[in-house]
Amino acid sequence: MPPAPSVSRETDARLEDFLALLLKWNARINLVAERDAAVLRARHIADSLQLLPLLPQGGGEAADLGTGGGFPGLVLAIADGGRRWNLVESDRRKAAFLLAASAELGLSHVTVHAERIEAVALPPLSLVTARALAPLTALLGHAARLLAPGGTAIFPKGRTAGAELTAAQADWTMDTERFESRTEPGATILRITGIRRVGT
Fold this sequence. Notes:
By secondary structure, the chain is an alpha/beta fold. 35% of the residues lie in helices and 25% in strands. It has a 7-stranded mixed β-sheet with strand order 3-2-1-4-5-7-6, with helices on both faces.
């Protein structure tokens, strides 16, 4: 795993503002199960930030699928202002939170799409992320449709990463790098390129 990322004081302040907004909205709609700011910072924000050094260089446009309460997409957009971020979230209440948070935090490089992943229309992307969303086989189908040639998919996975990779290889060919999670023992982050359906 690359060294843990350090963020600027400005970014850290924005993350604190995001956390305050999350807790405020979480009292009305269920964005995350935890209600404690320290737990949220350690579990969700740190978990999202550890993806930062794995992002491809050179900018381009990115999408986070099933962003939910903002993880990892909104956190990465706060810390990574060099590319446009598309946050795809079909739950309209969660999408409303993402819209409000993006506006309040001044994230002009973020666009929120309140629609299903299967229906979203995006330009060819250099990066796709998704956290705790679906089995790898389903994620690869979304990534194959949305990524430009040479694009990268980054998927944090739990202890089932090895089994999911084995199952996916029946239908997909890909180049995969595996990184041990810094925040969850036994969890793995998959960085995948060259995604192609078998036989194509």
